[in-house]
Amino acid sequence: xxxxxxxxxxxxxxxxxxxxxxxxxxxxxxxxxxxxxxxxxxxxxxxxxxxxxxxxxxxxxxxxxxxxxxxxxxxxxxxxxxxxxxxxxxxxxxxxxxxxxxxxxxxxxxxxxxxxx
Amino acid sequence: xxxxxxxxxxxxxxxxxxxxxxxxxxxxxxxxxxxxxxxxxxxxxxxxxxxxxxxxxxxxxxxxxxxxxxxxxxxxxxxxxxxxxxxxxxxxxxxxxxxxxxxxxxxxxx
Lengths: 117, 110
Fold this sequence. Notes:
By secondary structure, chain A is an all-beta fold.
């Protein structure tokens, strides 16, 4: 299957600082990438849909000024958590969609565990 | 009512057992159905993908979709300890935005 690389896999930052997470599609071009957040023992919660060259579409309740998404190329989307607070600590996962003969399939990055201290 | 319902488990079975994982959904517009496996602290990995009612088999895994009942299942035959993970069902209408179940945690004991 297609490979999606997410970096870093783990980050610890101080409260008030910003953290950038990268999501790359390694062997395909992804016009659409998705960013999810997952709390322990909970399912994935879609935060935003990122389209190359345009503004991201955020889900209800997700602060767009806090979670900045940039999708500048067909292989790279970034999520920046600005002015991070301990409650932003979570597992963040990106995915990219691939057209596969009639529909699209989603492939996921390895996830980034963010801890804000 | 959630769009997708999935029992969170945990589901504990002995090695070699047949495992049945299930999801129900309420939106009849869902046309594409996926099962993902997620190991602890890792991203989900696509296991199975179907878009029609009926069964689809891949090795020890069988995905079953019943659109009339809005019910999907994943069967794992001859379960192994390495199958221990959280299994998430996911579905979409064709416009890429996936809706996930909560995930079922499976524990296969040797």
